């Protein structure tokens, strides 16, 4: 059998498996106790630290280079060098409060970058991207966010013309599937907040299986989620969704600035790409990774199976 015919059969089999299996999960009994949940899981689970890929490492032929950033908080222009790549991923909090002028500035900055593709999600600080929250602000129920009450939030998303904006949605870049979601467990009534348990799990149950890269604003429990107080605050149900159902190759997020870095559980690599530190200094460098295109992955699989 020829390699081409074999690869075609493998590809159809994988696609059929992905499309046929559509499951959801129930809320974890410890959804509301992330620190306790991780204390129990760390006995049998690993969160192994991973060293970042050097910016000057050559990209292998047939691979796609991803450049990950998050939590730039209107300080993008003060960042260290953004390395070249094929796809820029920004996991939210590109502004401090979502002021439309700051959104425009961010979009302009994106336009100066050479990456052919830029994929962006919102975060809890990008207030004007959350229509429900903006309604509450205008109704006077969120006085702490009064500064954005007069912003024309309906136009916020349309201002991002230099990127692909994802909100509980998917895009396909160079054959690789990327899903983006801005939600995170409740955090002082900022944007895209949901209560732990079923409310936040309903958002994670929207994530389809078979995605290669998952982007969320907040972290899962146990990976890049330890705050300055030493507490794990990541989402238990998000980790369950990743490990038991979706199983992406990479999960890119931010939100917890002090959790910056890379870990792996042996199946998924977790990247907290927060550029800003806990003191909002934009000094953490971008994080890069390379993934083979589907065609290249199939070629490698055929070679490993010694097919001809």
Present the secondary structure layout.
Blueprint: H1 3-20, H2 34-41, E1 48-49, E2 63-69, E3 87-90, H3 100-112, E4 117-120, H4 131-138, E5 164-165, E6 169-173, E7 176-181, E8 184-185, E9 193-194, H5 198-204, E10 213-216, H6 236-246, E11 250-253, E12 261-264, E13 269-272, E14 287-292, H7 294-304
Parallel strand pairs: 2-3, 3-4, 4-5, 7-10, 8-9, 10-11, 11-13
Antiparallel strand pairs: 1-12, 2-14, 6-7, 12-13
Helix pairs in contact: 1-7
Task: Write up what this structure looks like.
This protein is α/β, with parallel strands linked by helices and 308 residues long. Helix content is 25%, strand content 18%. It is built from 7 helices and 14 strands. It has helices spanning 3-20, 34-41, 100-112, 131-138, 198-204, 236-246, 294-304, and strands spanning 48-49, 63-69, 87-90, 117-120, 164-165, 169-173, 176-181, 184-185, 193-194, 213-216, 250-253, 261-264, 269-272, 287-292. The strands form 3 sheets. The protein has a 7-stranded mixed sheet, with no helix packed on it. The protein has a 5-stranded mixed sheet with strand order 5-4-3-2-14. It has a two-stranded parallel ribbon with strand order 8-9. A hairpin with a 4-residue loop joins strand 12 and strand 13. The protein starts with a helix and ends with a helix. The model is unreliable at 1-21 (pLDDT under 50).
Shape: globular
What is the mean pLDDT? 92
Taking pLDDT < 50 over at least 5 consecutive residues as the criterion, the unreliable ranges are: 1-21
According to DSSP, the number of beta strands is: 14
Taking Cα atoms only, what radius of gyration do you get, to the nearest Å?
A: 20 Å
Give the class from helix and strand content and strand pairing.
alpha/beta
Kindly estimate the percentage of residues that lie in beta strands according to DSSP: 15-25%
Q: What is the helix tally? A: 7
> Reading side by side through the largest sheet, how are the strands ordered?
1-12-13-11-10-7-6
How would a textbook summarize the main sheet? 7 strands, mixed
- First-to-last CA distance: 6 Å
Helix content: 10-25%
Listing every helix as H and every strand as E from the N terminus to the C terminus, the arrangement reads: HHEEEHEHEEEEEHEHEEEEH
């Amino acid at each position: 059998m020829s390699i081409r015919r074999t690869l075609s059969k493998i590809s159809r089999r994988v696609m059929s498996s992905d499309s046929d299996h559509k499951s959801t999960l129930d809320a974890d009994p410890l959804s509301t106790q992330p620190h306790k949940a991780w204390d129990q899981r760390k006995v049998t689970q690993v969160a192994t630290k991973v060293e970042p890929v050097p910016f000057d490492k050559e990209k292998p032929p047939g691979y796609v280079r991803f450049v990950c950033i998050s939590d730039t908080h209107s300080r993008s222009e003060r960042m260290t060098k953004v390395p070249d790549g094929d796809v820029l991923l920004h996991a939210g909090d590109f502004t401090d409060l979502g002021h439309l002028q700051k959104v425009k500035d961010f979009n302009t900055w994106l336009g100066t970058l050479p990456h052919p593709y830029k994929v962006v999600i919102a975060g809890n600080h990008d207030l004007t991207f959350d229509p429900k929250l903006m309604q509450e602000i205008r109704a006077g129920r969120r006085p702490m966010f009064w500064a954005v009450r007069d912003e024309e939030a309906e136009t916020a998303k349309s201002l991002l013309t230099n990127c692909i904006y994802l909100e509980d949605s998917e895009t396909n870049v160079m054959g690789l599937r990327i899903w983006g979601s801005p939600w995170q467990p409740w955090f002082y009534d900022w944007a895209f907040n949901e209560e732990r348990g079923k409310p936040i799990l309903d958002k994670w149950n929207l994530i389809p299986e078979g995605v290669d890269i998952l982007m969320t604003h907040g972290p899962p429990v146990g990976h890049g989620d330890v705050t300055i107080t030493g507490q794990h605050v990541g989402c238990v149900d998000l980790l369950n969704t990743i490990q038991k159902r979706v199983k992406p190759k990479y999960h890119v997020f931010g939100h917890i600035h002090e959790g910056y870095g890379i870990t792996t559980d042996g199946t998924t690599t977790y990247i907290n790409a927060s550029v800003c530190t806990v003191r909002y200094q934009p000094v953490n460098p971008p994080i890069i990774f390379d993934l083979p295109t589907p065609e290249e992955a199939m070629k490698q699989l055929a070679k490993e199976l010694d097919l001809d």
